């Protein structure tokens, strides 16, 4: 998987639960959106994310989330 | 002939006072004329001294007094904190009452009348004040999640006003979302939309009497008075959150810890600890996530909860046990309810053996629950049928849907749609539903609705949606679509615009043709098998 593919996949999943104005804009997820997005990411990338992975720093913006997922799949 | 009321409990009230109070209710704002009636917590000394006649039903009490006076009758001192935000800002009961009254005055000045609907965008912590103000003004409250702007619920409900913003000081911002606001029968407190088995969201009409009855029934078992600091993590648009937690806590004189803005489990736990939360209610999904996060921290850093309660979806054995490990000093509760029942129907605690056997509990005081067969005949204990609920808190009906209402409101009770049985001791066990309604992270989702939304996309030849069990979010959805491969972008955009978060499929699989069996019917077995295999 390339960075571009990772970016596109994460963005596609994020758009189901949030409408960020830019890669660095806050995602403004509520608790339901967080849990559904985590599950969707696990399903799409074959990952298992623990509670320590689900933090405001990593899920705060689309850019941060792509960097986090990329660090796990690359 | 003298003036009289026949109350819902059959009591006949004959007096000039009853007539005067009735005029007050039907009159302008229900404020003037209350001075000669019970004043409630606005007059604290009087409140403490007052002996309330238990024979008087709540309708009459509410007619004489505003909603807040009725709700807060048993609440704590005016300087006690009613509400605390995640940042530690606190609102006392006195400040809460002042803010709610001010917002209610704004609504009245804007011409809001009893019987009309006022929608409230529930996305901020201060929305709870606006929600209380709608009830205080005598109107019907429609909680509304502003993110779901495209679902058409405002067009269906036709509220006279929409409160788009609220502040803790009682300032509210009003919008007029429709040209022809509707009038409802008096006494309807809440209009809540929930997924219906026919595929369209249904508007559930709940009476104020029923809500108050349910709140008191919840307080008969949930130890909110003993553990009064309630962590509120669920959206206020859920009846579970607004009625089952917010109103219950305020009635008990407790403190609401507004944590909806904290979506991350570790954040929620540390804030609960910092704010000294003593009670937590959640759906199994949120409780599972919290358990996972709590296990990463030492017991001494976890919130010291007095109780933790689950509802909204079946609480599996693993989660029941995990909760006991994570919060060893908390009493655990499993609960059963549905929006159409205001919402709570049954509950049990971990002190009861049935809790450990997976029961959702026994009916709350005032409610009767039994299983009925498909013909509507009551079944003896132990036999599985559709659960039927009778009592004061069941809904008045669905909005604009007499046919749908008459299908579920039978024999003076509510046919829940949930299958289950009741044992000899009265404990209820649920086993699911047969009508295409499933739970995703505690939210009711209609497979028919999801299918219909996908089928509405141009170029979709056929669609079928499968729900798969999931150990974290109850179920997830996989949609199979017959169409050209490129159609997936259009489907996703349409789904995002027309389905709530929980109804959006985790996977959408585009195929040339959907599988069919020898009788040319959709082959659901094959679809279920394909849904387990992954892929996009």
What do you see in this structure?
- The complex is a heterodimer of chains A (74) and B (536).
- Chain A has a single domain, classed as Non-ribosomal Peptide Synthetase Peptidyl Carrier Protein, Chain A, CATH 1.10.1200.
- In chain A, 58% of the residues lie in helices and 0% in strands.
- Chain A has 4 helices and no strands.
- Chain A has helices at 3-14, 31-45, 56-59, 62-73.
- The mean pLDDT of chain A is 94.
- Helix content of chain B is 29%, strand content 26%.
- Residues 1-61 of chain B have low confidence and may be disordered.
- Chain A binds chain B through residues 12, 15-17, 29-36, 39-40, 43-44, 50-52, 54-56, 59, and chain B through 233-235, 260, 262-268, 285-286, 289, 292-293, 295-296, 440-441, 443, 470, 472-473, 476, 492, 495-496, 501-502, 504, 506-507, 534, 536.
Short description:
The complex is a heterodimer of chains A (74) and B (536). Chain A is mainly alpha-helical and 74 residues long.
